[in-house]
Protein: LysR family transcriptional regulator
Amino acid sequence: MKIADLKLFTKVVELGSFTAAANALDLPRANVSRRINELEKAVGSQLFHRTTRNLSLTNSGSTYFDEITQAIELFDRAQQSLSSSRDMLTGKIKLGVLPETYDLLQPILFEFHDKYPEIQLDIRSISNGFNEIFQQGLDIAIHGGTIFDSDIVARKVIQYRRALVASPEYVEEFGALESLDELDQHKCICFRWPSGDIDSQWHFDSGTASVKASLIANSVGFIKGATIRGRGISFLPTMMIQRELKQGTLVPLLPQETAIKEDGWLLYPQPKTLNKASKVLIEHLSSEIPRLNQLS
Structure:
């Protein structure tokens, strides 16, 4: 009986399915199923009730999980004490990052990597942290905007504002805005939230503008690219368009209008499913990401 198989068992329990555990550990689902079957044979008891739709612990499995969890915690604590004595932190972290935030986050991540060179950072491009955190088996994901009901832990790390922008070519062809009321006369590019709702209510300190979407995407990067190519007006986080504003590929509209503040979050599963390295990175990101406000 291997400690890796026991950890696999606890991961299946914590995430609720063989598939989620396979994604989290980058394993084929068949490998997970086989190893759990072998573990059940080794302990001489069925640990899970299996149906086509549900996976649940048997009474024996529940008792075994409680005992094994304590044993694994003691094992990991012993292993970590050895790493600490060598001033080393090890492990692998799968982090989901929006492609349009790479330039902002790379210095923060590289600082962490330099401090903990034995940690393997596995960066994954995402467009929707809520959906992809389990699909890709992520330890941590970056998310901006509204939080939805979920078993995922959401930790607020930053507040930011958005701005109305368009390309110079769009402004030349269709004219600049004189007021928020004129937005309904323009082509607008809107974001689709993880809930499926379209972000067609753009909120400012002076009021809310209702817009008609001519183009919809669930990727901020796609929306930014479409705006640069003159497809319409968008409402984008200022920290993500600093370079484009400086280069002039995007121009601000109604700069006198101040958008209300929105929140940026770290998403991650329940802490008991995270390794020590992931927990340390969460603290690092929580400390460093707020400084990005200085860019906007």
